[in-house]
TrEMBL record:
Endonuclease/exonuclease/phosphatase domain span: 106-349
Family matches, as Gene3D superfamilies: Endonuclease/exonuclease/phosphatase (3.60.10.10)
Taxonomic lineage: Bacteria, Pseudomonadati, Bacteroidota, Bacteroidia, Bacteroidales
Residue ranges crossing the lipid bilayer per the database entry: 6-29, 41-61, 67-87
Keywords assigned by UniProt, alphabetized: Endonuclease, Exonuclease, Hydrolase, Membrane, Nuclease, Transmembrane, Transmembrane helix
Signal peptide coordinates: none
Listed name of the protein: Endonuclease/exonuclease/phosphatase family metal-dependent hydrolase
A Pfam family recorded for this sequence: Exo_endo_phos
One Gene Ontology term of the molecular function aspect: exonuclease activity
Species this protein is from: Butyricimonas paravirosa
């Protein structure tokens, strides 16, 4: 037993060095394009796990009173951007406002409305009405091809919409959509040449003001197939099969990091040409510690969660609820009022609901 404990003790040293390296890489994830170096992007995606392991190492070396404690300590405090992106004070003071001119916008990856097949009762219209949603951005929209405009309006409770269906079949259309209580005066598609992911924008007239809303569904991580293969190999104790699958998963993640970065650059270029007040919504499939998130945010967009969120800000219910990959951001034309992300059983994502106020309104 003593020999086993000593062996475990020795393993903690390379583990500490490895976690320090990954943590250091994560610091640079927001600013390094994965096309140039992809390890920081991998660290950014798995930063919740890296931080948890470093907390364990901090306690371990603290108990043993060794200088190695310095490495996990520095790693943790150096990744302050992760903490600010995932945690906000639950005691943050609310902004007082008069419920009159605020705009309520929501972003929701609905997982293709797959809960229809699961026979789970849902009511998007009720969600809209209960939260007084004015603008609704939907990702992974799946819609039966035969639906008419009246039926669609009854389902969503908002009179105006625009869609970008990048995959169409005989029975259904797939893509993203924007619904609005206010008139949509024009919209445009941002084509990623993908059947799964795309973005779009809509110019929405609010009183005498026009705002531009971007709805994004960036490159999907899409490791579920390899994940299933890994579980199959593990069930029969095929170690070589597991190793090959893990390599495939890493390669797939690497490719998707690069694709998301390219998509983020494409979206940001359009934001930079926009002269209207801007709100950016969507499922980025990446964390606040990522190049895609930070490149789209640039120097002029405020993250709604960082601004008005409280507590732990996860939006994706998979992976033990550790990740925040859905966002609503806005430029300096808006004041953030309220941020909410209610847990609903309808999708693997939670909706993001945000109340904002347009500062220079002529309404």
């Amino acid at each position: 037993m003593a020999a086993l404990r000593f062996f475990f003790y020795l393993l903690m040293k390379p583990a500490t060095l490895g976690m320090t390296f990954l943590g250091a890489c994560g610091i640079f994830a927001p600013c390094i394009n994965p096309d140039k170096w992809w390890i920081p992007a991998l660290s950014g995606l798995f930063m919740p796990g890296i931080i948890l392991v470093n907390f364990y190492l901090l306690v371990f070396w603290g108990i043993h009173k060794k200088w190695w404690i310095i490495l996990p300590f520095i790693t943790i405090i150096s990744n302050h951007q992760f903490f600010s992106g995932m945690f906000q004070s639950p005691w943050k003071q609310d902004i007082p406002y008069v419920p009159k001119d605020e705009i309520t916008i929501a972003s929701y990856n609905v997982e293709g409305f797959y809960w229809i097949a699961r026979n789970i009762k849902y009511n998007i219209k009720k969600l809209v009405e209960d939260n007084h949603i004015d603008i609704l951005c939907i990702q992974e929209h799946c819609e039966e091809s035969h639906l008419d405009s009246i039926t669609i309006q009854q389902k969503f409770g908002l009179p105006n919409r625009c869609v970008f269906f990048n995959r169409q079949t005989a029975w259904a259309n797939f893509g993203i959509s924007i619904y609005s209580h206010y008139p949509i005066i024009r919209y445009g598609e941002i084509n990623f040449n993908s059947e799964k992911n795309n973005s779009m924008w809509a110019d929405i007239l609010i009183g005498k003001d026009t705002i531009r809303v971007f709805n994004n569904h960036l490159q999907t991580t899409d490791v579920s197939m390899n994940g299933k293969k890994y579980e199959e190999y593990r069930s029969v104790k095929d170690w070589k099969g597991q190793a090959r699958t893990l390599v495939n998963i890493v390669e797939q993640l690497k490719a998707n990091f690069v694709i998301r970065a390219s998509q983020a650059i494409q979206v940001r270029n359009l934001i930079d040409t926009t002269h209207y007040p801007v709100i950016v919504c969507g499922d980025f499939n990446d964390t606040p510690v990522s190049f895609a998130y930070n490149h789209i945010a640039g120097n002029n967009l405020t993250d709604g969660f960082r601004d008005r969120g409280k507590g732990y800000g996860h939006s994706f219910n998979g992976i033990k609820g550790l990740l925040r990959i859905d966002f609503i951001s806005y430029d300096k034309s808006f004041t953030g009022l309220v941020y909410d992300s209610p847990h609903l059983p309808w999708s693997d994502h939670n909706p993001i609901i945000m109340k904002v106020k347009l500062k220079t309104t002529s309404r």
